[in-house]
């Protein structure tokens, strides 16, 4: 094939299931293009609470390290080291919308 596509289907916000479900895709094309497709976005992304987890949309280049948590035995603390980030304007993520990233010429 020429693309790898992942779809998240009927994803609900925890504790806010009554708002409806989200359905969206990410497609990685062999040409280097990356396309995010948003089929169902029941509430504006700007209205999603970031109290329990940050709300982000876009691309980032990062890696994660798991270190033992000194205060809780048998658990690990996750540290994310981010190199670069391209954030999307979340006000533009709506039903039946898409965002395309195209590679720079090399």
UniProtKB/TrEMBL annotation:
Q: What is the lineage of its organism?
A: Eukaryota, Metazoa, Chordata, Craniata, Vertebrata
Query: What name does the UniProt record give this protein?
Result: PLDX1 protein
Q: Which GO terms describe its cellular component?
A: membrane
Which family does the similarity line name?
Answer: Belongs to the plexin family.
Task: Give the gene symbol.
Answer: Plxdc1
Cite the entry's keywords alphabetically.
Answer: Membrane, Signal, Transmembrane, Transmembrane helix
Q: Where in the cell is it found?
A: Membrane
Where does the source fall among the domains of life? Answer: Eukaryota
Its membrane topology, per UniProt? Single-pass type I membrane protein
Q: Does the keyword Transmembrane apply?
A: yes
Hey, what's the signal peptide range on this chain? Answer: none
Natural source organism? Origma solitaria
């Amino acid at each position: 094939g020429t693309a790898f596509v992942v779809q998240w289907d009927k994803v609900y916000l925890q504790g806010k299931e009554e708002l409806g479900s989200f359905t969206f895709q990410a497609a990685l094309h062999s040409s280097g293009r990356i396309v995010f497709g948003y089929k169902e976005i029941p509430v504006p992304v700007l209205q999603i609470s970031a109290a329990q987890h940050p709300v982000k949309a876009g691309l980032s280049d990062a890696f994660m390290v798991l270190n033992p948590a000194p205060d809780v035995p048998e658990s690990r603390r996750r540290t994310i080291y981010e190199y670069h980030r391209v954030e999307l304007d979340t006000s533009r993520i709506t039903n039946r919308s898409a965002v395309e990233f195209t590679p720079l010429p090399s």
